[in-house]
Amino acid sequence: DYDLRLKVDDIEKTIHLALADKFPFIAAIGSAKGATNKLYQWNAIRNDAGAITAVKDGVRVTDNDLTFAQPLTMAGYAQEIREAWGIGRQAGANTTHTSHNTPAWQKKAALERLTRKQSKLLLSAQEQVVGTANAAYKTRGIFSVLDPVSGSIQTGLAPQKYDPSLRVRDAAYFGGVITDLTAAKFEEMLDAAAEYLGDSLNLVGFCGLSLHKRMSQWTNYDQKASGQYTVSTRKSGEKIDVDLAVDVFKFNSGTVRVVNEYNLLCDLATGKTTAASTNAGVFIDPQDFLVRQFQPLTHTDLKDEGQGKSGFYSWDGGLEARLPSKSLV
């Protein structure tokens, strides 16, 4: 019957994302700062007081008493990444029930993929590479940026690792098994960074899920109870929530706020997480980190030579870590 003809539902008006489009690390480190070259540089200084001596009356200042404060140069290389999109001619002409067959939808999807790539790149352990005629420039990921004092010292590659006085303290670095990371051990790490800085710290921890869960287990609970419970307060009329997640940790040497980050230590060759991703974490002051952009995010439309409508996004930049010694890893 004509009235019972088959009707095709518009099943793609809403396309559900299988991956979250949240990137807490990129959001936390704030706005980008421009770079005028693939090699970008910045300065930092550890301005120690030096010897403290008594001065007799009438003694003049000599050349030996003069101090010229000289900052240390830190540097990195910008890396370009791209993400392309395309709609074939036949697919572009099909408007029956395909809301994704439009340049606007494909551009949005490509931009989300590029942002995910940017997040995984900046949160990787990749070491920088100087570009040549046969090799692309590569930037440092944060796990290379936060290499501790006793870590590898590069030779033959300019710029080398940061000066040891500006690098993460050995005692602020934990490379053991996650089950061995206790609250006391973490406090030792925080103490080491605070003592070296000479100030209490206020850090944000970008943690894999297993690390965050391990830290939540540090809180005290009734060992005699049948299950694990946390103490919570509520106002009259509010519901009771049993909250087993802890996001704020306060120690004598500072405060740490923790957020889950799912793009840590990914395999850049595949873009996938690794066994280390869920156990890893970096604890930083976001104000000490910037994204330096040699070329900001741009979109380029490609000429249609039979392939249909297409284009690509590109971004060229890297991390600036103003004071790595203030961080924990």
Lay out the secondary structure.
Elements: H1 24-28, E1 33-34, E2 39-44, E3 72-77, E4 79-87, H2 89-93, H3 103-122, H4 142-145, H5 183-197, E5 201-207, H6 209-216, E6 248-251, E7 254-260, E8 281-284, E9 289-301, E10 309-321
Parallel strand pairs: 1-9, 5-7
Antiparallel strand pairs: 2-3, 4-10, 5-8, 6-7, 9-10
Give a verbal description of the structure.
With 329 residues, the chain is an alpha+beta fold. It is 17% helix and 22% strand. It has six helices and ten strands; from the N terminus they run H-E-E-E-E-H-H-H-H-E-H-E-E-E-E-E. The protein has a four-stranded mixed beta sheet with strand order 1-9-10-4. A four-stranded mixed beta sheet has the order 6-7-5-8. Strand 6 and strand 7 form a beta hairpin. The N and C termini lie far apart (70 Å). Residues 1-19 and 227-235 have low confidence and may be disordered.
Going across the biggest sheet, name each strand in turn.
1-9-10-4
Report the order of strands and helices.
Answer: HEEEEHHHHEHEEEEE
Helix content range of the residues, please? 10-25%
Oligomeric form of this entry? single chain
Mean pLDDT score, rounded?
Answer: 82
Rg, please? 26 Å
Ends apart, CA distance between termini: 70 Å
Strand portion, in percent?
Answer: 15-25%
Helix/sheet category = alpha+beta
Count of separate DSSP helical elements: 6
The main pleated sheet reads as: 4 strands, mixed
Structural features:
329 residues, alpha+beta, four-stranded mixed sheet, 10 strands, globular, disordered N terminus
